[in-house]
Input
Amino acid sequence: FVAELSDELCLDDVTIEARPEREGAPGALGEPTASPADPGDGSTGAGPTPLPIAPGERFELVLMRGPLVIGTLGARARDGLSPAAVVSLGRVCEMLAVAIDSARILHDEQRTVAGLRELAEMKAAFLGSVTHELRTTVTIIEGFAMLLSRQAEHLDENQRADFIARIWHSSRSLGTL
Output
């Protein structure tokens, strides 16, 4: 993009700098005109006619998307730029600001999706662990209760007391879980 822009408008030292975040208010970061994207022919009804840029002059245009400053485009006009070329460059800056901001929004959304996936994996691992612990404890309680109910007459007092103690201990563990 920069190479084509440089060739098309005879620009040198083209730099595009994006702001690190999507916030901020409009501000002059350098100007060839007060409104580089305004044709100044009365068709929009607003803003002055852009000034030409002299040969060899370094300039900087603000990349805006609505009220947000997205970044800047800076360059040196090798052969100078007419007011019409400045208007064209202003339109390119509008599209560039949209592209940069859209890429930033996409990146933010991808990070959010990755975070949500990680959270879902952590939730699944947690639920798997809790499910395992609950099933293990319930299985112990069921097993010893079944042994007590079916084999009570074949168990001595110490075995019954042991089974009851295990059931009680497992039910307390279940309560803790």
Remarks:
- The helical segments are 2-9, 83-151, 157-176.
- The chain has three helices and three strands.
